[in-house]
């Protein structure tokens, strides 16, 4: 492995530690019996991918998205965003909000798989990336997914009479297939497993 390969390996390793620590904290917040509830769901063959995105200067940003509105089909995404130019926005209550630039930080986006396993307590936000008329933008996303052969569903500890299961059980690889189709059609894949 060359210098670049070693650096990428070390970066993804550190992101994995951030991901595991965050998921353990989330399990504690939910008062689950096992702090490793989310971490253990990854299984023996979890998937991790790294996306390096380059958004060039765009003279007509009102006509071109850097990335159209979507939710991540992940457990979580650890994102290193450009600390010079914004563009990431999150949808809340029908309004698009700019995600502030905080230099030298990582941004964590909760994914659909966590929303399902938390029975909707943790939400997978709809987000998009805008292009910029004056500056190019870079980002590095590390996506973490449960083993595609495993099934996910709301934790039994988070389902009761007051809060019934909001999502059906789904095999992760089937969810991936739905995710691709939903993204191309401009729909949210999480809606396909809502009860």
UniProtKB/TrEMBL annotation:
UniProt entry keywords in alphabetical sequence: Iron, Metal-binding
Domain Fe2OG dioxygenase: 46-146
Gene3D superfamilies: B-lactam Antibiotic, Isopenicillin N Synthase, Chain
InterPro entries, per the entry: IPNS-like_FE2OG_OXY, IPNS-like_sf, Oxoglu/Fe-dep_dioxygenase_dom, Plant_2OG-oxidoreductases
Full protein name: Fe2OG dioxygenase domain-containing protein
One GO molecular-function entry: metal ion binding
Matches recorded under Pfam families: 2OG-FeII_Oxy (PF03171)
Transmembrane regions: none
Highest taxon of source: Eukaryota
